[in-house]
Design goal:
The chain has 246 residues and is α+β, with helices and mostly antiparallel strands. The chain has 8 helices and 11 strands. It has 2 domains: 100 residues, no CATH class; 135 residues, 3-Layer(aba) Sandwich (Aminopeptidase). It starts with 7 loop residues before the first helix and ends with a strand.
Amino acid sequence: MDRLSLTGADIAVLERDTVAAVAPPETLEIGGWMVPLDNGTIGRAKSAVPLRHDIGPAAIAQIEDAYRSRGLKPAFRLADVPTLESVFAELTRRGLTPDQPTIFKTGTVAKLSAFSDVSVCILEKPDDAWAGVFLGDGFDPTDGAHRVAALTRSPGAIYAAAGEGGATQAVGVMSFGAQWAGIHGMRTAPAHRGKGHASAILAAMGRVAQARGFERVFLQVEEPNPARRIYRAAGFSPIWRYHYWR
């Protein structure tokens, strides 16, 4: 699947499922945009996103007012597509600039579930060891705490844990939306990378999605992240790149 094969309805469902997975305390819909309102560190939970890629800038002022009225800084999450050029121009005029290039990828649950046959622990609720990976060495503890809180709120999510000797050294989350399963919160403690934990977690979560009847899965990964090679091997393909405008 590529961006051109996605309908406007597909894009809207993907973005709704993306925002629902990070469970912002409040979400508005303004002029064809989703406007999640959160004061944490997760960009997707606090940046407005258009529900189609042929939208114009008419609602930008109202969206900015919604953020400012709650003491939040306005932010936008926009695919790098030419049909949004008028939005880019208006945000530039207002002093916002793009950063944090991120790749939006999709794949099939069938291929993901066959990626590894290593068993991992699947939790309905995260335990202290699971949360501890986000708070451990090599990760920002403030960001980690926000991610644990948001992902724990994700409705119906599952939580995967893997490691050696019964320890939890790598974790992940899978959300379940209206049509898509989503991969989030993939973390491996730095001292335990390269041991196949991430691959095992991805496949195990894929098997849960398959059992629940899902066929498609998405994830988002920052462009410089070396984990992109793992996702590529698991069958994920890019559908667009986006930036946060802040």
